[in-house]
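Quick one - inputs below.
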Amino acid sequence: MSASYPEQILDDKDSSAPKTARQRERDAVILQAATAEFAAAGYENARLEDIAQRAGVAKGTLYLYYEDKAALFKAAVRSLIQPALQRLQERVMSAEGSAVDLLRASLQQIYGEIASDNARRELVRLLIADGRRFPDLGDFYHDEVIAKGTATFRMILWRGIATGEFRHSPAEEFPQLMLAPAVAFSNWKLMFGERHQMDLDRYVEAHFQFLLAAIRNPDAGSDRT
Amino acid sequence: MSASYPEQILDDKDSSAPKTARQRERDAVILQAATAEFAAAGYENARLEDIAQRAGVAKGTLYLYYEDKAALFKAAVRSLIQPALQRLQERVMSAEGSAVDLLRASLQQIYGEIASDNARRELVRLLIADGRRFPDLGDFYHDEVIAKGTATFRMILWRGIATGEFRHSPAEEFPQLMLAPAVAFSNWKLMFGERHQMDLDRYVEAHFQFLLAAIRNPDAGSDRT
Amino acid sequence: MSASYPEQILDDKDSSAPKTARQRERDAVILQAATAEFAAAGYENARLEDIAQRAGVAKGTLYLYYEDKAALFKAAVRSLIQPALQRLQERVMSAEGSAVDLLRASLQQIYGEIASDNARRELVRLLIADGRRFPDLGDFYHDEVIAKGTATFRMILWRGIATGEFRHSPAEEFPQLMLAPAVAFSNWKLMFGERHQMDLDRYVEAHFQFLLAAIRNPDAGSDRT
Amino acid sequence: MSASYPEQILDDKDSSAPKTARQRERDAVILQAATAEFAAAGYENARLEDIAQRAGVAKGTLYLYYEDKAALFKAAVRSLIQPALQRLQERVMSAEGSAVDLLRASLQQIYGEIASDNARRELVRLLIADGRRFPDLGDFYHDEVIAKGTATFRMILWRGIATGEFRHSPAEEFPQLMLAPAVAFSNWKLMFGERHQMDLDRYVEAHFQFLLAAIRNPDAGSDRT
DNA sequence: CATGAATGAGATTTCATTCAT
DNA sequence: CATGAATGAAATCTCATTCAT
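Output:
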């Protein structure tokens, strides 16, 4: 966890205590409950009473762990960001195989998260819906997830160029271009939920092929994947 | 404007109708104020009192024009969708020139709207933030804007294929792939506002070149644009 | 109309005008609409807008005819009292026949009004529900209807005593005793509406017979009616 | 207390239940305050703020004990019905003496309640004024108080007939006839309050004698009471 | 005279936050 | 530490009354 964030973000309530095991456990339960409620209802609509109930604690207890609703919200969002960050870091560095394979695997991981993990998607909803009130959260997300995520894809691109699989492209400057369809899909789900379905498998494959068409080195041996 | 939408969406308050000029003006002012407030604060956070004040009317006056807060919100969102829809329709049909030129012009129009028109972007924020409560709005947006927008880009793609400028690609099935970077940019602005700037001109050009790389027919005469 | 009432009651809006025919007509329509609304909804619940609509005039017009809601209410209640009063006076003085017949006819008239005439019953509801706020109305009702009504029945009683049909009884001092079952029936309807029905014909007959048993002179020739 | 009423009536807020002593006390205070306010102002006119103030609690506290204004009203009315019901049941079963004595004692009890107990009278006002909105309350009152009350008087009548004190009369079918003067008196007070006084003692005696005249068996030994 | 759009005080209800137990 | 009853500010919505047209 980089030290460049204001305490507000990373140390919201480190103020005093050495934290017993019991307390740490409670904290986790509360955070989980808060995450669920906020994701389901948004910042304004989430009721502290419901969070407390879901966590199995009294309303007042929340205030022993978090300054106020805003602090709880920020902690909840951070707790959503954390795992995404970790998974991201774990994978790439340990990756083996061709750049094309790595690219495909990385995309599939992303779609897997977006498609299956509600929390992951709702995180983006929260950042968009209530992010202006909590700019720290946006910054945190940007630096830890977006920046690192794009860096990762840039790496993959570079590796492919080095191996001759890929050619130079604008995506070197803007790796977002490679990820954009996944972002678009996420938005689609956020806006339309289950009401306007899409064939995800076909879409992912289309994304991948489209991307390859844009970056693959035409001189390379063609190993259609 | 298809007639398939429930009146709720398209005619929320056309019920009585005669409407004097004065009233029409008032309605417009209120709608504008509401749009601004909702865009700035979201559905929950927007206070009717603020909307009234911004519109220069009393709280009760709002209720002369709209059933309740939800109706006002829906009208506000609709008023944001409408112009997008119109601009969309105007342009494409009158298009001239090569498919490549048309593609570039269309992209530039979209980025122009996203980048400059706050309202256009905030509309998406509202649809993401509060859309679950008002699915009609999402459906309306999907059918009128998204569906037509993607159809338009598919047309362009087909025209290019017909002229030999473009080749077949997964974008025929998912025109979203062509637009995704613009969506990603929109999200970027929604999440980070002015805090993590991007060189928009370079980004747009990168998007365009990246897209061309994916769909251009390599056998065509190369006319770098 | 006795002069002993404050103008408030009898002359609520006589302030200025000579009243055109048109105005008198409008006044009547408004009063009728108000009466209906107040009877249906009570003072608090009745909306001036509904009264205006029912009368086919604009809301503001009501204020040309009545000071405010309270004045309109008082006028409405008075307009309900008036006809009861008139019918009362018309009948008795012109009555012919035996005291027993007169008593029966009078009772039947009362039940007829209570049972069939909603307005008549709702008047009592209004006097009970909202009367404390408008004591004038209660006083007016007391003096004009109750006092005169009981006086009437006392007359009948006396006439019967004079003819030898009736004997002396506590009802001479409290003629209410003779009318009480009708009052009880009215209350019944007010409290239970149509939910706990009563066989009215049998009840009226029971009331009459019960009353006769209490006041008939046992020495008189028995002419069962 | 028959079990045939929907919980809504009898158990409006017993849901969770454990209730500390402190809470029970608070509930009682609130209910008392509500009863007073509703009796004084009616359902519409009573302001929750006033009830809260009278109870010495904050506005929000009311909602900890009652769902909403309607629930509070229903509870208040029920709390008025309850004691009437109890006193009714206690007395009759323990009655001693002649039917005439029993009748007199019962009447006096009723008048005692009507005359002295404001709450008892105001209950009827509420049932008449606002009962249409809450038919459950009317039904409850009918079944628990009215039905049982009339049944009681029918019993007395039958006992008197059995002992030879009374003769057959229409009051066997409609015991209301025996009680009607008390109802009329209650109405009188509701409509005129203290403004048109009545000599209650003389009225009660008149009622009793009048009633006796209607039902006493003329062949019985005359023991003028 | 008549209108009905506009007002804004006021009523109910919610819920983040506090604090006595 | 934990509780959850109590608070009261704030938000939505209604409607009697006014007044420019």
